[in-house]
Design a protein that fits this description.
Layout: H1 8-16, H2 22-40, E1 43-46, H3 48-61, E2 72-76, H4 91-94, H5 105-112, E3 116-121, E4 141-142, E5 145-149, H6 155-162, E6 168-172, H7 179-185, E7 188-191, E8 212-216, H8 219-229, E9 259-263, H9 273-288, E10 292-296, H10 304-319, H11 338-349, H12 352-365, H13 371-391, E11 397-401, H14 417-421, H15 428-433, E12 437-444, E13 450-456, H16 462-476
Parallel strand pairs: 2-3, 2-6, 9-10, 9-11
Antiparallel strand pairs: 1-3, 4-5, 6-8, 7-8, 7-12, 11-13, 12-13
Helix pairs in contact: 2-3, 6-7, 8-16, 10-12, 10-13
Bound molecules: glutamine.
Residues 127-130, 153, 172-177, 205, 312, 424 line the site of glutamine.
């Protein structure tokens, strides 16, 4: 098997036994990027020279006690790394190539664990989207069918992992951006509890919703990466002080006696039959493993996506204010005055989706409308959280679809932003409640595209979610399938 196709655990074994060197492993990923990325456009910045230097250093030290020592990975283009251009795939930062003078907590922790950053992956501009089509670098294509999108906004990371351009990748999930592209590309990705991973040094979209998480080739790898990045961070006051459990130890394969909820609101009339069947088949797998399936209701589910598309733009309108062309961002020549300068820096620098959200958010937060939209959405958010809290009194985890369909074709939602927003219907409720949720492969549709199963847990319940996902993955047999590229 080619080295780039290895999982973290497999590569670690070989590195530890000195069967391969870290330089060989890294070169294998870099060559793979050179070979296949022309068709995918997943990688927007290649940090190859630095990666090879680090690989040689790790080889010469020869210490492979950390499971991530010498493992090459890619980070979504919103993670700041000292000296590495980071643009959120927006012309507002690209035109001057913003180079951060510091590391995000997550990339810093990965570096401390020995992982090697080999570059940056494509995303929708400032992570706003579900298809990686709003990037200033152009669309990322799905390795399973390059006429289709890889999903978004972490579409670059998903395509890169699916195509074996790296061993794992980092994404962000504000409203589904880890889980949806993972499902579209046939890999696994986790959105942890809000506050479980640090957002420090990751460019914000909506600060009360943004989460940081890994995208991997299997659940065991997810557990390994999450272990390295999770935990309180003095640089991010919203991280929780809860101790981080041993996630790999949780992967016992045993779900006997567990109660798994099936929420009726996720299975409305008219839904895609293949998607429904894939979740029902997963429920059967769990029954065979000795778990009990419990029908439950999460009554406020339908309000989650509308709520998200009020709250997210409100926070966007505030977070995007810093890109004024002076501290950061696109510079303007020959401005007539300061206001003209700001105006032009932002009109020229931002794309349409970012502008749309700034306008919606500014409107919803304005004096006359704050109570009608923002406050109301916050109240509904509380109701959605309560639905989950109530459900978790009787079940351990909840299973549901990830997406309403398989990866759509490039351009399918180009002229219809609301159709794009509706891609998130199964992904917004967990965001409103701040609970952990992951996507794990659960088969293929008739069009040969991958399908994902969503597994959600209670707040801080990553351990349980990972355990259930791992047990499923091992018996369902869909992990490790590769696209023919
Ligand atoms: N599709 C959602 C949006 O457009 C999710 C984005 C995200 O999670 N970053 O906002």
């Amino acid at each position: 098997m080619s080295l780039h196709a290895l999982t973290i655990t497999e590569a670690h074994e070989k590195l530890r036994k000195k069967e391969i060197s870290c330089e060989e492993l890294t070169r294998s990923c870099l060559e793979r990027i050179e070979k296949v990325d022309g068709a995918l456009n997943a990688v927007v910045y290649r940090n190859f020279d630095r990666a090879l230097l680090e690989a040689k250093k790790i080889d010469s030290e020869g210490k492979f006690s950390s499971p991530l020592a010498g493992i090459p990975y890619l980070a979504k283009d919103v993670y700041c790394e000292e000296g590495v251009p980071t643009t959120a795939c927006s012309n507002v930062l690209r035109s001057k190539d913003y180079v951060p003078p510091f590391d995000s907590t997550t990339t810093k922790r990965l570096k401390a664990a020995g992982a090697i950053s080999i570059g940056k992956t494509n995303t929708d501009e400032f992570t706003m989207g579900a298809s990686t089509e709003t990037s200033c670098y152009g669309v990322t294509r799905n390795p399973w069918d390059t006429k289709r999108v890889a999903g978004g906004s972490s579409g670059g990371s998903a395509a890169a992992v699916a195509a074996d351009e790296c061993i794992f990748a980092l994404g962000t999930d504000t409203g589904g951006s880890i889980r949806q592209p993972a499902a579209f590309c046939g890999l696994t990705g986790i959105r942890p509890t809000y506050g479980r991973t640090s957002r420090y040094g990751v460019m914000s979209m909506a600060s009360s919703l943004d989460t940081i998480g890994p995208m991997c080739k299997n659940v065991e790898d997810l557990a390994i990466v999450l272990q390295a990045i999770a935990g309180a961070d003095p640089l991010d006051g919203t991280t929780g002080k809860k101790p981080v459990p041993d996630y790999t130890k949780a992967l016992t394969g045993n779900v006997k006696g567990m109660k798994i909820g099936l929420p009726k609101e996720y299975f409305a009339d008219g839904m895609n039959e293949e998607i429904r069947a894939s979740v029902m088949n997963a429920a059967d797998v769990f029954k065979k493993l000795g778990a009990t399936i419990v029908d439950i209701s999460l009554p406020h589910t339908a309000y989650a996506t509308p709520c998200y598309y009020v709250l997210c733009p409100c926070e966007v309108s505030s977070n995007m204010a810093r890109y004024d062309g002076i501290r950061y961002g696109h510079t303007v020549k020959n401005a007539e005055n300061l206001v003209d300068y700001y105006h032009r820096a932002r009109s020229e620098g931002f794309g349409n989706e970012v502008k749309r959200r700034i306008m919606i958010g500014t409107y919803a937060l304005s004096a006359g409308y704050y109570d009608a939209y923002y406050r109301q959405a916050q109240k509904v958010r509380t109701l959605i959280s309560r639905d989950f809290a109530e459900a978790y009194k009787t079940v351990d985890v909840i299973i549901a679809p990830v997406t309403p369909g398989t990866a759509f074709t490039v351009g399918a939602h180009e002229s219809d932003p609301v159709a794009m927003y509706l891609e998130d219907i199964f992904l917004s409720p967990q965001v409103m409640a701040g609970i952990p949720a992951l996507s794990v492969p659960c088969g293929f549709a008739k069009n040969s595209m991958p399908l994902g199963l969503q597994i959600m847990g209670p707040q801080w319940g990553e351990e349980t979610v990972l355990r259930v996902a791992d047990a499923y993955e091992k018996s369902a047999g869909f992990a490790g399938k590769k696209p023919a590229l």
